[in-house]
UniProtKB/TrEMBL annotation, chain B:
Coiled coil: none
Keywords: Nucleotide-binding, Phosphoprotein, Transcription, Transcription regulation
Domain of life: Bacteria
Matches recorded under InterPro entries: N-reg_PII, N-reg_PII-like_a/b, N-reg_PII/ATP_PRibTrfase_C, N-reg_PII_CS, N-reg_PII_urydylation_site
Protein name according to UniProt: Nitrogen regulatory protein P-II
Assembly and binders: Homotrimer.
Entry keyword annotation includes Transcription regulation: yes
Protein family: Belongs to the P(II) protein family.
Membrane-spanning segments: none
Length: 470, 112
């Protein structure tokens, strides 16, 4: 995945991994065959990527489920847990049946084809490219790692209209949204022919990749994508009954703390795993993920200390998540000090959106999916252009249209424009398609439970059980 | 017989219980309750949402006592639970018509 990888590019490709001494002596092999690729797989990479995939799954279940679940009222706890668990399960099935093929086969710049539908042709002797010439992963590893991203992204959306959505229409939405929005977005941002093949056909890449958009681990594909879909959903479904009149305090910030902390841990798989290898560049993404998050948690607390006189736990946890969101597109491109600045900037911006803007516009984004994920994602996407600039200590970008790959010339203004274009495309595509899907579902089978069911709680009415029997 | 209901600050519960044991009080019922009186409420802020909670957590004690012990119990609770600040709570004393011990069927003072 992950645009034009860095790979310690400052050494002009010297650190691009060579699979073996034999290849290194002869120089990298252009367009290697599957037999040659088999010798270019590193067990360290494979082990790290499988661990990363498991970490990203942990971000959805239980981390996101608990983070969200703790913030709703007792009567809706299970509905949130169930929505996340089932979205993950449904998305995994969609991914292997048609998602992987739509996202990661060639075809058009907008979406891949169906040649690998139902994982046709994928076996233990097929391979997926990384960001280094002549370094490969077994294709199953790549299918699995990317699957976890497809699982968490639609699960993020549910926070925006938590406590007031019917389960079955949500599952239908998930399948359609993945198919019409997520898989094409993943293709546009992350698909390219690979470092050993792109030079032979430089147009064999997704649209935003082709523009030169930088999105290391999914600022556009995951966070802006889900954030805007959430906002559209909460507008179509409408406010919760009693919104603004009745108190709806979180039922367990302890759960929220557990969830936020597990998100942070899992995010190392999300960001550092997005390097697709286990090397120095991976450790850079790791440390950036660590310090940007810490900076954002501190910044949110300082803002609250100034504004309210008391730094809240929920605020610190929200800041940490905002920092994780913001560093996601920049994880492999920034230097640690740049990452800290990104973290310090994102929290005040998100704080402004979840407090002032939300209260002024009176939309009921229950768990601030828009305010944290979409806004934080936009700050990160545009900030990436700045912190990636080598003149500011960043890693720049790698040009894979030449063989072997080399560091590209960095154009700060041009990069900012490209990032803005990618953000706008994401907002329009995901916002537009989500609006059509939500409105269509609302007019047909209905998205919202009856007033009585909503008042009594979704747990008992949608799932026939209660979270706490005491 | 008297029935004494006392609403006190939660952190005073152990102290009060100890003092009452010293008097020979053989049992009481304790519940966690919420309510309001002259003490001002608190403000909770969850991200942008601000809630003022005017219901504060208190502990409610219910004690059935013989007439001669009741006055001492009231005095002890008053002295032990006081912090001399608003929100220390209240004590109510009611006449108790009858009491029965379920296990034995004893009634009146014998049941206390």
């Amino acid at each position: 995945m992950i645009r034009k990888m860095i790979s310690g590019m400052t050494a002009a490709g010297l650190s691009l991994g060579m699979a073996s001494a034999a290849f290194a002596q002869a120089g990298p092999i252009k367009a290697p065959t599957a037999e040659q690729m088999a010798t270019m797989v590193n067990k360290g990479d494979v082990a790290w990527m499988l661990v990363s995939a498991a970490l990203v799954l942990m971000m959805s279940i239980p981390a996101l489920a608990l983070f969200y679940g703790g913030l709703v009222r007792t009567k809706n706890m299970l509905s949130v847990l169930m929505q996340v668990l089932m979205i993950v399960s449904v998305a995994a099935l969609c991914w292997v049946c048609w998602g992987y093929s739509m996202a990661f086969t060639g075809g058009s710049p907008y979406v891949g084809g169906l040649s690998k539908a139902f994982l046709a042709g994928v076996s233990t002797s097929t391979y997926a490219a990384t960001f280094s010439n002549n370094v490969y992963l077994p294709e199953y590893v790549y299918v699995i790692f990317q699957m976890t991203f497809a699982c968490i992204t639609p699960a993020l959306i549910v926070g925006a209209f938590a406590e007031r959505v019917k389960f079955t229409p949500l599952m239908i939405f998930t399948v359609l949204w993945l198919t019409l929005v997520y898989f094409p977005m993943a293709h546009m941002v992350w698909y390219f022919a690979g470092p050993d093949f792109l030079s032979d056909n430089t147009s064999d890449a997704g649209l935003i990749y082709g523009w030169g958009g930088l999105d290391f681990a999914g600022g556009t594909v995951v966070h802006i994508n889900a954030g805007i879909a959430g906002l559209v959903g909460c507008l179509v479904i409408g406010k919760r009954l009693g919104f603004g009149k009745e108190a709806t305090p979180p039922h367990s910030l302890t759960m929220t703390m557990i969830g936020a902390s597990l998100l942070w841990v899992g995010w190392f798989g999300f960001n550092a795993g997005s390097g697709l290898e286990a090397n120095a560049a991976t450790s850079l993404a790791f440390i950036n993920t660590f310090v940007a998050t810490a900076a954002a948690a501190v910044a949110w607390s300082i803002v609250e200390q100034i504004k309210h006189g008391k730094p809240s736990m929920l605020g610190a946890a929200s800041g940490a998540v905002a920092g994780l969101v913001a560093i996601t597109p920049a994880a492999g491109y920034a230097a640690p000090m740049g990452a800290i600045i990104l973290g310090l900037v994102v929290s005040p911006v998100c704080f402004f959106f979840v407090t002032t803007v939300k209260n002024a516009l009176k939309y009921d984004d229950t768990l601030d999916v828009f305010g944290v994920h979409c806004i934080g994602g936009i700050v990160g996407a545009i900030g990436t252009a700045i912190v990636a600039d080598p003149r500011l200590g960043g890693q720049g970008w790698v040009d894979y249209t030449v063989f072997p790959a080399k560091a590209g010339t960095y154009d700060l203004v041009g990069q900012i424009i490209t990032q803005v274009k990618a953000v706008v495309l994401t907002l329009v595509l995901s916002g537009g398609v989500s609006a059509i899907l939500f409105i269509a579902l609302d007019k047909t089978i209905g998205l919202r439970p009856t007033e009585e069911a909503e008042r009594e709680g979704l747990d008992i009415n949608e799932h026939g059980e209660r979270a706490y029997n005491m | 017989m008297k029935f004494i209901i006392a609403i006190i600050k939660p952190f005073k519960l152990d102290e009060v219980r100890e003092a009452l044991s010293g008097l020979g009080v053989a049992g009481m019922t304790v519940s966690e309750v919420k309510g309001f009186g002259r003490q001002k409420g608190q403000t909770e802020i969850y991200r942008g949402a601000e809630y003022s909670t005017n219901m504060l957590p208190k502990v409610k004690l219910e004690i059935a006592a013989s007439d001669d012990l009741a006055a001492q119990i009231v005095e002890t609770i008053q002295q032990t639970a006081s912090t001399e600040a608003i929100g220390d709570g209240k004590i109510f004393v009611l006449d108790l018509a009858s009491a029965v011990r379920i296990r034995t069927g004893e009634s009146g003072d014998m049941a206390l």
